[in-house]
Write a structure and sequence with these properties.
Elements lengths: L10 E3 L5 E3 L3 H5 L6 E4 L7 H5 L17 E5 L2 E11 L2 E8 L5 H5 L1
Antiparallel strand pairs: 1-2, 3-4, 4-5, 5-6
């Protein structure tokens, strides 16, 4: 969304009398989109193995079945979660948030 004119509540007067948009950095940061992903695990394979993957192939991952999955924000791990069903969609239930410290950003 593009806003052409600042709202009256979002402006303040400078000493010269010209309106200036008030900057509320934490409020602005709340609107920045991020990508939240849930990582099941990973596997390191050779290109030869990659080329032999087919529709019924099974690749072992480095995570144990039943262990919590890694929550990532823009590729950075921030915690762990488990998969749940939310209506007709998958969701995640947060177990812990170890790497998320928004207080450092807001200060």
């Amino acid at each position: 969304m593009i806003i052409d004119e600042p709202a009256a509540a979002d402006t303040e007067q400078t000493r010269s009398g010209a309106p200036r948009r008030a900057r509320d950095l934490p409020q602005m940061m709340r609107k920045i989109p991020v990508t939240l992903t849930l990582e099941v695990g990973s596997a390191r394979i050779s290109l030869q193995e990659l080329m032999s993957i087919g529709a019924s192939s099974v690749i072992a991952l480095d995570a144990l079945a039943g262990e919590p999955l890694v929550i990532k924000v823009n590729g950075t791990p921030i915690g762990r979660a488990e998969v749940v069903v939310a209506g007709e969609q998958y969701g995640l239930k947060v177990i812990d948030l170890d790497g998320l410290n928004l207080d450092l950003i807001a200060s």
